[in-house]
Amino acid sequence: MFKNDRLEILERTETRMREIADATSHYSGEDYLNALVCVLSKALSADYVLIAVPKENGTTQLETLSLCHGDKLLPSLEYDYLGTPCENVYGKKVCSYPKNVAELFPGDLLLQEMNIEAYLGVPLYTDKEKNIGVLVCLFNECLHEENSVQTILEFFAHRVAGEIQRLATIEDLTKLNKEYLTLNEQYQIQNEKLEFALEQTIAEERLKSAFLQNISHEIRTPMNGILGFSNLLDNDQLSRADLQEYSKYIVSSCNQLLSVVNDILYVSNIESGQVETNEDELNLNALLKQLHKGFKEKLTDKNIEFTYHSSLPDRDSHIVTDGLKLKQILWNLIMNAIKFTPEGFVRFGYEIKEKDIEFYVQDSGIGIPENMWEDIFKPFHQVDSSTQREFDGIGLGLSICAGYVKKLGGKIWFKSQLSKGTSLYFTIPYNKA
C-alpha cells in the first residue's frame, strides 16, 4: 500500500506540474505571474497564492506582485513580514506549517483575518543568488500533501524569479532608453544593449521551453513504465519469473523518476546557495574501486574498456572532504562518459598536483560540438534538447558537478574533440587525513 501511495503521489505531482506548465507556457512577464498564481491555486487547492517582493531596499515591507483568492486576482497588498511566516522564508529557505500557523504567529493579523490554517512558502532567488521575494500558498485547512506542494512550488520558483528579474530588467532598460533618446551620441550604445537583452530573453525563453518539454518527457517515460507493469501484476496467471521481471522494471522506472526529481532539487539547492558541505575522512582509493566495480557490472552489453588509476598507495589515500558530493561528481561524470561512448574506452582516476587532487574522466565517445563549449556547465543545456533525441536526461548532471566542485573549493574544465572523445577534469584541495 505504501508503494502504491507513493506512486500515486508521484503521478499526481507530475500531472499537476505538467498541467501548470501547459497552462502558463504562453505567458510572460506580469501576465505569467498572474496566470501562475491562479493556476497554482486551482491545481493545489490553495485558498490564496501570492508572489511578493520588497517594496523598498532596507525596509521590512513586502508588496504582492500577484495575489489570487480562488480564481480571482486581488489588488496589490503591502505588509510587514516581521513576525510572519514570510520572515523565515524571505532570503532564507523553504518553510512549511501544515497546521495551526495562525497560532504559531499570533502577531500576523492577516492570517487571523483570512482564517489561514496552513502555510507553505519558498524563497525567490535570481541566478546571482540574490533574494528577491517569496512564493506562498495559504490554506484554510490543514495541508496533507506537504512534500508534493513543496516540490511543485520549488520547481516554478526559478521561473517566477526569472520573470521578476526580467520585468525589472525591462523597466530599467526602458528608463535608460528614455534618457539616452535625448543624447544622440549615446543612443546607439543603448540600442545595442536593448538588442542584446532581447536576444538573451529569446534564448532564455527557448531554453525554458525546451526544458519543460524534456522534463515532461523524462518524467512521463518512467511513469508510463511504472503504470504499465503495475497493471500487468494484476494477472493471476503470471509465473514467478514474470513477476520478478515486471518488479525489476517497476523499480528501475522508479529509480529513473527519482533521479530526475533529485537532479532538479540538487540544482535548486545549488542555485539558491543552500548546499552545505560535511567533511569527514575518506578512503579515496576505496571510493574509486567501489565506483569501478559498480559501473563494471552494468557494462556487460557494451564494448567498452573501463579502467581506473589511483596515484596514491592505499595507506596514503585517506583524505578529508565531503565524500558524498565527491562520489556524486565522479558518478555523474562517469555515467556521462559511458552514455556518450558507444564503444572504445572510459578511464577515470586522479593525480596529485601540488596542493590539489586533480581527477579526470576520459572517453573515446562522440565529443562535444564547439558551439556548446561555453554552455556545457549551465543547467538544462544539452547537445540535442528535442524529445526525439538519442540520449536521455534533462541536462543537469554537469551543472550539478560544477556547483559541487566549486563548493568543495576546486575548479572544473574539459577538453573535447568531436567524434574522438572528451576529457573532463576537476580539482579539490588535497587535505590529508
Describe the 3D structure.
With 433 residues, the chain is an alpha+beta fold. It has three domains: 2-203, Beta-Lactamase, CATH 3.30.450.40; 214-271, Helix Hairpins (Orthogonal Bundle), CATH 1.10.287; 280-429, 2-Layer Sandwich (Heat Shock Protein 90), CATH 3.30.565.10. The protein has helices at residues 2-24, 29-43, 101-104, 109-113, 146-180, 184-232, 240-271, 284-296, 323-339, 397-407, and strands spanning 48-54, 61-69, 72-73, 78-80, 95-97, 118-125, 131-139, 280-283, 303-309, 318-321, 343-353, 356-363, 412-417, 421-429. Helix 5 (146-180) runs antiparallel to helix 6. The longest helix is centred in the middle third of the chain and has 49 residues, at 184-232.
Task: Write a short abstract of this structure.
This protein has helices at 2-24, 29-43, 101-104, 109-113, 146-180, 184-232, 240-271, 284-296, 323-339, 397-407, and strands at residues 48-54, 61-69, 72-73, 78-80, 95-97, 118-125, 131-139, 280-283, 303-309, 318-321, 343-353, 356-363, 412-417, 421-429. It has 433 residues and is α+β, with helices and mostly antiparallel strands.
